[in-house]
Structures are given as C-alpha cells and as structure tokens.
Amino acid sequence: MRNIAAKELKSASLPQLNGICEEIRAEILRTVSSNGGHLASNLGAVELTVALHRVFDFPRDRLVFDVGHQCYTHKLLSGRAGRFSTLRRRNGLSGFPKREESEYDSYDTGHAGTAISAALGLAKARDLKGEDHCVIALVGDGSFQNGLVYEALNSLASLNTSVLIVLNDNGMSISPTEGGMHDLLEELKGEKETDRSVRLFERFGLRYAGICNGNRLEELLPALEEAKRELDKGSALLHVCTRKGYGNSFCENAPVETHGVGRVCMQEYSAALGEELVALAEKDERIVAVTAAMTDSLGLRAFFDRFPERAFDVGICEEHACVLASALAAGGMKPYFAIYSTFLQRAFDEIIHDVCGQKLPVVFCVDRAGITGADGETHQGVFDLSYLSLIPDLAIAIPGNIGEFRSMVRMAAKFPGPIAIRYPRGGLEGSACEIEFGKFHILHSTSSDIVVLAAGETSLALAEKVRLRSIKTGRDFTIVNVRFLKPLDREMLTALPQRHVVTIEDNVLCGGLGDAVRRFYGNCGKQIYSFGYRDEFIPHGEPRELSEEYGRSASDLETLISEIFDACR
Asked: Has residue 160 got a pLDDT over 90?
C-alpha cells in the first residue's frame, strides 16, 4: 500500500476519506490473512483512526492506544505502509505500538487499562515543560472495565491537566463485554437515564462530549473537532460507537472468532481444558470456572453454556478474578481460573496474599505459556515459572502433552491446596496416564553420564530432537519428563547417577527449573547446564526461530552433548 501523507489526509474530501478507509481496510485484511494478527478489532477502528489523524497533528500531538492491538491503521498512516507486509514477522513491524519503531508511537502498550494513566503522565510532562499539544487516550469498552482505568480517573481532576479520552465502544473485548460499566454504556447508547450516567463521568472531572457513530466520518469528524475544542476547558470524554469487524460481513458476524487470526495446525490445550471441566462438573457440583474476558479462547464456552450458574467472566479484571476465585474456594467451591500466562502477571499480589497465603484450593490454568510468537514482548509467557515458583504453598505442574494435561486437570480437582498447571497453546494429544503428584517420569534411560531434565512439551521435543541426532554418532543420554517444578521430585533427583545434568525449560533462566535444580544439588559434584531464555525481552516473530535465538538452540544443545561425551572419554 502507498504511504498516505498527512497533507493529503487533511485536504481530502469526505468521499476521498471514505476511499482511503476502504484502501486501508483492504490492506489490513490482506496482511492479516497472510501474517495472522488482530483482524476484527482493527477493521472496526479504521474510520476512527483516520478521523483522529485528520483532526489532530501527530506526532506533535500524542496518541496512546489502550491494549494497542487496534493500531494497524495508525501504522499505515504514519509512514509505515511500505513495511506493513512485515507485520508481526521477525524484524518487521510490531502488532502493537512501539516507541522504538516510530515517533508516532508515544507509548508502548499490550495489556489493558494503561492508556489513561499513560496519557495523564504524558500530559503532565507537557505541562511541566511548558509545551502545547493534545494528548489522546483511545480506550475500548472492554479495557474500560479494568481497575487501573478507575485509579487513573480518580486522580484525573486533582492532576489539573487536560486529556481527551476517546471511548471506542463496540460492546466487545475478546468476548462480549458484561457487567455494570457495560450496562451504563448501554444506557448512554440507548438514551436511557442519560443524565445520571453522564454525571458519573463528570464526577471524575470529565466533560462528556457526547456520543457518535465511529464508523461514519460525517458524524465522527465534527464530534472530534468539538471534543478538541473542549480540551481548552479541561479533560473530556468522547463516546464513540463502532462495530467490530466493520466493512467485512464475515468479521462483523463472527467478531469473537476473528478477533485474533493465527495459523494453528496442532490441537489446542484449551479445547482439552473445556472438555475435562465439563466432565468434572457433571459429577462434582463444587467445580466452577473463572475467566477474565477470554471465555472462548480459553476453551470454556461449552462449560459456560452447560453450567451458566457456575461460570464467571469478570471482564478484563485479572486481580478481581483472582480474589473472586480465592473467595469461591473459601466458600467451599473448587474454582478453575483459566488465564494466559502473560495476563496472570497482573494478579501476582493476589496469588500471593489471597490464594496461597490462605492455602486455598484454586487451580490456575495457565495457557499460552512459553514463547507465543507474533504478539511480541507483552505477550510472551516466559516468566510464569519464575514468578510462581517463589510463592510458598503453590504447586506447579507442567504437562508433557495434552494427555498428561487432562490427567493433571482431573488430579487438581482433588488437590487440597493451590496449584498452577502451565501449558502452551498447541501440542500433541499423547497418551492418557495417571499423574502422581510431585513425581517426574523417565522417558528414555541410558547408561551414559548425561541426563536431560526437560519441563513441558516444547522442551521435551527439543531434547528428543537432539537425542535422535546424537545417537547417529553414538552419543545417547537419559531424558526425564519434569512434570512438576514444585515440588521437585527429590527422590528421583537424588537417585540419578549421572554427573552431567542438563535442564531445558520454556521460561527465562532466572528463577526457573535450572535454578531450582542447581539449588537442590548444591555442591555435590554435579555439573549443571541450563537451557532457557536469556535475561532479555523477547520480540515478535516465529516461536521456533525466537526459541533458537534467545537461548534454546538445538545446535547449542547438540554441541554441549558432544563436548561432554568427548570430555568423558
């Protein structure tokens, strides 16, 4: 697609602007169909983003995206159209705003709820430096449920500054939005009790600039111009209604399925989770499911349909979801809290104090663990083994395939304390087997002096790949499936005769399996070698390539095995 200059955008007629929108929409559809990415959310925000670029002067003015996955039009309008075909590819454009990528990206975002806080910070920096430009926070109605939004709104009036909050209301996050704020926004859209609803925003020091159709430029442009003028008096909120997937009938009718489009060829762990929870709940009335706005992507739709009274989607409110799960457990229920690894980070304090501090039997189903790939730094699930392993009384299970995962989900129903099961997005079904709590499993045994301790399906696959290469040159080694990081199988670790111990994990090295094994063996003469991810943030790209580049290289592991064998001769 051609680069569209700001001058062209600001001088274009309304029909020409609509033509630009269709040009952008076609480019987004073409690129996402090839590269994967967030489709429906971006299609719905095309007119809104074009209008923002028409009315404001970026990058002099500052635009902060909440979550950020709806920034594709912004990238196409900010001199990056020639590189848009590289979206989400290694060394290409990020699928999220990146300050290092362009001066048009004023703040990096990837998790919900941060935009208003960030906009306030940028606005106060502007004020303190005596500058004169606008700061805009573009926030979706799904993000507007997050508690951080209300912490920011609470301080908005007292900070004595001016920001424009554009609320992009399409009735969706990943799943349809629910809850009290959703109901309030629906009142505004339906013109019911409008005065009461508007007063709520005014209590936060916001001028409510009205509501308009965000997919019709003839409504949107004058509304934005008026909201911009309101900034002379203080902060304002413009309520914009859009349709997720707008302009593509398939996406409009399937906004959940087309929120994120990827290339998945393996079976998904989430489907297995849904099947197992439904089966457990049929027999055990204590079983409940909790999620934070990700019902379908976590495999819970069948559970929600079958047991609506025992299913809780709290919106993008991970901390609340964690406390809710802990209190459900305190009340005698057996909660399974399903969540992506990267989003569980947001509930770290609640895991410590509310769940583990009370030894409550919550089951954390930690999906998308390890390198997830094209969404980049904010979505790589490479920290969970580290931040979970330091918490007392929390068990951590790591299945080697989907069959083992099913067994762990069933085992967790009877487990008396908190337990986390971490797993990647896709994998192999594998054979079903009974899992003994806290025990490893030897997959392949040899008499050589090398043992590889591998945690998780991708680590086991790497170990087996290198073993098959190595045996061609007469070098074989033992492989152990590390099914639990906490507790470690101390009995097996003590009994292993090998002097050279190699650990592999789909996690950063600091605080993970390698560190735990090194602490266990201490100074007993074992040589410990660890493969995991370096102390760096991992960018977007193909998971396999990133894994190799950032510390889990098959060639490096194969070289190590060869060197140990040669040294032992």
From this structure: no
Give the tens place of pLDDT for each residue, 488-502. Answer: 999 999 999 999 999
Mean pLDDT, range 497-523, rounded to an integer: 96
Q: Please confirm whether the linkage preceding 392 is cis (ω < 30° from 0).
A: no
Residue 341 domain boundaries: 267-427
Give the count of domains, the chain.
Answer: 3
CA-wise closest residue to 54 among 84, 22, 83, 13:
13
Do 489 and 383 have their domain in common? no
Residue 193 has what pLDDT? 47
Secondary structure class of 137 (helix, strand, coil): strand
190 pLDDT higher than 70: no
Residues 23 and 130 in one domain: yes
239 close to 211: Cβ distance less than 8 angstroms: yes
Q: How many residues does the chain have?
A: 569
Q: Is 70 exceeded by the pLDDT of residue 256? A: no
Residue 90 is among the residues annotated as catalytic for this protein = no
**Own/partner long-range contacts of 93-101 (Cβ < 8 Å, ≥24 apart):** 94/376, 94/539, 94/540, 95/37, 95/38, 95/69, 95/71, 95/374, 95/375, 95/376, 95/540, 96/65, 96/68, 96/69, 96/71, 96/375, 96/376, 96/378, 97/65, 97/68, 97/71
- Taking the chain, what is the end-to-end CA distance rounded to the nearest angstrom? 61
Query: Is 334 assigned a catalytic role?
Result: no
Same domain, 58 and 14: yes
Active-site residue, from 25, 80, 244, 334: 244
| pLDDT average, residue stretch 391-407 | 97
Candidate list 27, 47, 230, 318, residue with the active-site label: 318
Q: What gap in Å lies between CA 542 and CA 250, rounded to an integer?
A: 27
Give 555: exposed, middle or buried? Use CB within 10 Å, 0-12, 13-18, 19+: exposed
- Whether residues 248 and 282 fall in one domain: no
Instruction: Determine whether 306 is an active site residue.
Output: no
* pLDDT, tens digit, 9 for 90 and up, residues 104-143: 999 999 888 899 999 999 999 999 999 999 999 999 888 8
Last residue of a domain, one of 261, 293, 314: 261
Q: In the predicted model, is pLDDT for residue 224 greater than 60?
A: yes
Using CA atoms, how far residue 293 sits from 223, 256, 371, in Å, is 30, 11, 22
Give ∠ CA 419-424-425 in degrees, rounded to 5. Answer: 120
Last residue of a domain, one of 223, 239, 261: 261
Indicate which residue of 126, 228, 346, 422 is catalytic.
Answer: 346
CA–CA gap between residue 394 and residue 487 (Å, rounded): 9
Q: Which pTM does this prediction carry?
A: 0.82
Query: Sign of torsion, CA 112 115 116 122?
Result: positive
Residues of the chain with pLDDT > 90, as a percent, come to: 72
DSSP class of residue 482?
-
Q: Which residues pair with 426 in a beta bridge?
A: 268
410 and 515 together in one domain: no
